[in-house]
């Protein structure tokens, strides 16, 4: 599962595939940037 963040309104959407648009503000999909989910980060040391 990937996390997508809207560059326009800052809403975060969790989806397997890139959403067609922001469900919060309706921004186009190219405004959605992929974010790395915190729980998949490799633990240090
Ligand atoms: Zn948005």
Strand order, largest beta sheet: 2-1-3
Estimated share of beta-strand residues: 25-35%
What is the fold named in CATH at topology level? Rubrerythrin, domain 2
Our count of helices gives 0
> How does CATH name the architecture?
Single Sheet
Helix- and strand-based class?
mainly beta
Written overview of the protein:
With 45 residues, the protein is mainly β. Strands 2-1-3 form a 3-stranded antiparallel β-sheet, with no helix packed on it. A hairpin with a 5-residue loop joins strand 1 and strand 2. Bound molecules: zinc ion. Zinc ion binds next to loops.
Short précis:
The protein is mostly beta strands and 45 residues long. The chain is 0% helix and 29% strand.
Q: Any key phrases for this structure?
A:
45 residues, mainly beta, Rubrerythrin, domain 2, three-stranded antiparallel beta sheet, 29% strand, elongated, binds zinc ion
SSE map:
Blueprint: E1 2-6, E2 12-15, E3 32-35
Antiparallel strand pairs: 1-2, 1-3
This protein binds zinc ion (ZN).
Zinc ion (ZN) is lined by residues 6, 8-9, 11, 22, 24-25, 27.
